[in-house]
Amino acid sequence: MGMERAGSIREPCLVCAGGSVPPRLRGETRARGAPAGILNVNKPSGPTSHDIVDRIRRASRVRRVGHAGTLDPAASGVLIVCLGQATRVIEYLMNSKKRYHARIRLGVVTETGDAQGKVVRSIPEINTTRAEVEEALTRFRGPVQQVPPMYSALKHEGRALYELARRGIAVERTPRVVEIYDLRLTIWTPPTFQLFVECSRGTYVRVLAADVGEALGTGGHLDQLVRVACGAYALEDAVSLDRAEQTLSGGDWSQILHPLDEPLLDFDAFIVDQEAEIKIRHGQQVEGPDPLNGLFSRAYTTTSQFVGLLQYHRENRAWQPRKVFNADEANA
User: Fold this and answer.
1) CA–CA separation, 195 vs 130, rounded Å?
2) 33-95+233-258 adopts what CATH topology?
3) Of 259, 331, 268, which Cα lies nearest the Cα of 296?
4) Known catalytic residues?
5) CATH fold of 98-229, please?
6) Strand 76-83 to strand 220-230: parallel, antiparallel, or no bridges (unpaired)?
7) Which site in 157, 162, 186, 273 is 20 to 30 Å from 194, CA atoms measured?
């Protein structure tokens, strides 16, 4: 019984430690059983993220469906939807960096921070220059504090904030720190301009737009938002909602689903023999080499089947199963 660091055996070379699964093993989906995997959907403007999940659930006839990061109804672009056991890797997708094209309208402040909200303040004439915008943006790069908006899905005493806001109730929200990795002015068409934003989980681009407007002394709101990437999943590779529904309804999901282990490819990988596989599937620790990078590793069988994610315990030099996946679904 044992584990081999992937790539240490000659034939076949299944997985490279700390690297990616060979192309022949990625995106291959058997045309039987229930679909399980990751779907990169190009969300249209209009429906909520929950609406998209419901439509994918109906089309696929899969009960467990969830998304990895909400997009506001008016926003469009990359929405990652996970089906079946892939819902168990949502936490790794949620932590991915997000990238957006955001159009901001200066001189108009709305109660929701976007174009769908009621206008609460406006300035008829805007004289802001591009140089002033560029200077203001320097204050919002790196770690910044944001106060979550009232019109959001965050909960207060069990109630979504947007439900309270619609009843005219405002509650105090605790500021939280988010990270703006990249913030650039890309299109200047005053009184609007477009930004490229790369940010951490939990960032409200609506709040960023409003805060930039206040920093300029004019106020402002988010006029349009397109998510162009979520981690490794990009807009140019996303499938339309109509195509996703048609493909899933027809049962040929291998065309559009990504393997559920894809968000874990930054972790090391090991190949386990049959005895170790059985122990892992029963939640038991197995012996193995010390980790190269971090304390987590993917485990695969000698026939390239994904078994699960393991965590290393230094005190007894053993690997403990953290997430184990059903053989049929994980490798469908």
Assistant:
1) 12
2) Pseudouridine synthase (3.30.2350)
3) 268
4) 72
5) Pseudouridine synthase (3.30.2350)
6) parallel
7) 162
Q: Band the pLDDT of 290: cuts 50, 70, 90.
A: confident
CATH superfamily of 3-13+262-330: PUA domain (2.30.130.10)
| Tens of pLDDT, residues 168-217 | 666 667 889 999 999 999 999 999 999 999 999 999 999 999 999 999 99
What residues does CATH 2.30.130.10 cover in the chain? 3-13+262-330
Residue range(s) occupied by CATH 3.30.2350.10 in the chain: 33-95+233-258, 98-229
Residue whose C-alpha is closest to residue 224's, from 111, 66, 116: 116
Confidence of residue 106 (pLDDT cuts 50, 70, 90): very high
Q: Which of 211, 227, 186, 225 is nearest to 109 (CA)?
A: 211
Instruction: With a cut of 60, say whether residue 64 has pLDDT above it.
Output: yes
Instruction: With a cut of 50, say whether residue 227 has pLDDT above it.
Output: yes
Question: Side chain identity at 6, as an amino acid letter?
Answer: A
